[in-house]
């Protein structure tokens, strides 16, 4: 789960406007009135828009996007580079609050490039802090600390107390995330003292919330509950529903740990209502997680399962890559329409030339018609060739888009596995997992741009993946990989990670719910010009309704099915995907065109 302080503290802009002596609602209304009075498209309006969006970031982020886009547009037209940087940074903040790290990072990096053209080191260092937040979320702690300490150094050099507060807060959170709670709490307490001197309710609310999280992690539940309630009171004062939802979820978690299930449900439901109101998907997922645990403790397994499914669905939606695929398709559609428009213009010109020749003599008409016949036949052949080539280009681009979805989805699940071990404080298992995961990640990154890899490389990846998931599964899981002797695994090529979604489904939808020892078998056989891959498990997946749910809901299965369809289109083959029910477990049959390296 994203650490709250990075979404509450580091997203403020460097403008001397923020006064929290009166309510945020009054500030927003006042700024809107100022904008109505100042309709001129100048830097004053751009500055007002940035300030208004800053106030709306945590209460109404979705409606703030048109306002910040207008500010960036005005700044560009007036060549106000600093305003454009501030606008891009605030747009990144909006994306970050909505858990869209990809677009957030894009906005921050664009702002950082522009900052090379100004002399404001303080502004540039704050952008490094925002990018540090992304690194922190990805658990790249060393890189995040490097950015945050540079930010702290610059803040102290320029005497900016608010930036110093933000830097200390984020440094504290990094230490807490890496289990160094003594340093983490120390830095948060320093930040809180400075925030009180500034009388900044936003900073105090966010820091108090994170201080409570650190206290909860070291088992000081009473102190943590006291600070969470303080954070909620401060959040009410400034109408910051984002902090309020986070604190409510955290109180629910502590109540659940203390077996105070009624209170846990009450706070989780309050957080859920607020999260839905402001569109905070990750907090909504967090609420369902608390509710799932609470229902399970109360023995209400149906509600527990329903809540857990909602949690998983919302969690996975945060990293959805569907928008990227849609963008690729739209770009290709535009190119197609553009090329067809050009072709139509060429045809019109050619007809005009033909009509001119028809005015001439019968002799020229005869030979002109004959020449046009041969020309038309050749032109039609060329047009068909162009269309065929273009269709292939579209299919190839979509295939690239699908591959770009596969690897992030797989890496995201693996990161969750590491998070599970860390949360359980199983350091040895976490270290073992991290070592294996680093090997796996490196292999995935090395193969991410390849259309095909050898069967040997892919099976090694699958062996390592099964080892990782076995560690996470916490039960005995046996596996085997069998390749027919006629298949040269060093020379046979397959799309990378084509089997991974089905192994994942076998583990988590088949073997995990099963009592007793789990078994997963991978069998590779030839069938003429087809490579047949079987993934067998002995899990609980004999239910057809369960298999149908897997096929309809699993992103990995959908993506793999589309990959096979595109391979069939490009190579005119008959690859296929089939789910086969067994008396015990499920068999998945993947048929791929046989390709060799040499």
Automatic annotation (TrEMBL):
The chain crosses the membrane at residues 357-375. This is Tetratricopeptide repeat protein. TPR repeats lie at residues 125-158, 165-198, 285-318. Pfam families: His_kinase, TPR_12, TPR_8. It comes from Maribacter litoralis. InterPro entries: Bact_2-comp_sensor_kinase, HATPase_C_sf, Sig_transdc_His_kin_internal, TPR-like_helical_dom_sf, TPR_rpt. Keywords: Membrane, TPR repeat, Transmembrane, Transmembrane helix. One of its GO terms (cellular component) is membrane. The lineage of its organism: Bacteria, Pseudomonadati, Bacteroidota, Flavobacteriia, Flavobacteriales. It comes from the Bacteria. PROSITE patterns: TPR. GO terms for molecular function: phosphorelay sensor kinase activity. Residues 397-476 form the Signal transduction histidine kinase internal region domain.
């Amino acid at each position: 789960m994203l650490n709250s302080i990075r979404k509450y503290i580091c997203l403020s802009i460097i403008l001397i406007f923020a006064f929290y002596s009166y309510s945020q609602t009054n500030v927003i209304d006042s700024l809107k009135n100022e904008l109505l009075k100042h309709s001129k498209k100048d830097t004053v309006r751009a500055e007002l828009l940035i300030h208004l969006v800053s106030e709306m970031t945590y209460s109404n982020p979705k409606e703030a996007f048109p306002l910040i886009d207008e500010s960036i547009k005005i700044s560009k037209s007036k060549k106000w580079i600093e305003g454009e940087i501030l606008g891009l940074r605030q747009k990144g903040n909006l994306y970050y609050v909505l858990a869209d790290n990809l677009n957030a990072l894009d906005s921050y990096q664009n702002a950082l490039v522009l900052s090379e053209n100004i002399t404001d080191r303080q502004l540039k260092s704050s952008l490094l802090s925002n990018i540090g937040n992304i690194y922190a979320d990805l658990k790249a702690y060393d890189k995040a600390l490097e950015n945050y300490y540079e930010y702290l150094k610059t803040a102290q050099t320029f005497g900016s107390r608010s930036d110093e507060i933000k830097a200390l807060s984020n440094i504290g959170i990094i230490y807490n995330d890496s289990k160094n709670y003594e340093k983490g709490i120390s830095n948060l307490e320093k930040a809180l003292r400075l925030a009180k001197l500034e009388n900044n309710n936003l900073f105090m609310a966010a820091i108090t919330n994170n201080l409570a999280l650190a206290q909860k992690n070291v088992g000081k539940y009473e102190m943590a509950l006291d600070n969470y309630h303080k954070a909620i009171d401060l959040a009410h004062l400034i109408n910051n529903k984002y902090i309020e939802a986070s604190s409510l979820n955290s109180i629910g978690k502590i109540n659940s740990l203390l077996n105070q299930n009624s209170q846990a449900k009450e706070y989780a439901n309050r957080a859920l209502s607020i999260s839905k109101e402001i569109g905070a998907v990750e907090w909504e997922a967090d609420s369902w997680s608390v509710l799932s645990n609470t229902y399970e403790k109360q023995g209400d397994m149906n509600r527990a399962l329903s809540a857990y499914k909602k949690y998983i669905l919302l969690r996975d939606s945060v990293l959805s890559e569907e928008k990227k695929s849609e963008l690729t398709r739209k770009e290709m559609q535009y190119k197609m329409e553009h090329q067809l428009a050009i072709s139509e213009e060429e045809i019109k010109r050619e007809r005009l030339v033909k009509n001119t020749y028809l005015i001439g003599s019968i002799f020229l008409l005869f030979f002109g018609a004959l020449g046009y016949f041969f020309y038309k036949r050749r032109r039609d052949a060329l047009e068909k060739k162009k269309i065929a080539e273009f269709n292939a280009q579209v299919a190839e681009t979509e295939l690239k888009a699908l591959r770009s979805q596969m690897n992030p989805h797989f890496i995201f699940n693996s990161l969750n596995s590491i998070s599970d071990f860390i949360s359980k404080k199983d350091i040895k298992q976490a270290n073992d997992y991290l070592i294996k995961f680093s090997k796996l990640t490196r292999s995935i990154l090395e193969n991410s741009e390849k259309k095909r890899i050898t069967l040997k490389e892919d099976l090694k990846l699958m062996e390592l993946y099964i080892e990782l998931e076995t560690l996470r599964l916490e039960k005995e899981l046996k596996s085997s990989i069998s390749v027919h002797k006629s298949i040269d695994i060093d020379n046979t090529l397959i799309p990378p990670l084509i089997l991974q979604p089905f192994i994942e489904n076998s583990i988590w939808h088949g073997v995990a719910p099963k009592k007793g020892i789990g078994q997963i078998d991978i069998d590779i056989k030839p069938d003429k010009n087809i490579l047949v891959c079987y993934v067998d498990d002995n899990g609980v997946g004999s239910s057809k309704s369960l298999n149908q749910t897997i096929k309809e809901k699993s992103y990995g299965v959908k993506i793999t099915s589309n990959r096979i369809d595109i391979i069939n289109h490009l190579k005119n083959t008959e690859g296929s995907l089939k789910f086969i029910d067994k008396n015990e477990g499920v068999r998945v049959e993947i048929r791929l065109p046989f390709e060799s390296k040499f």
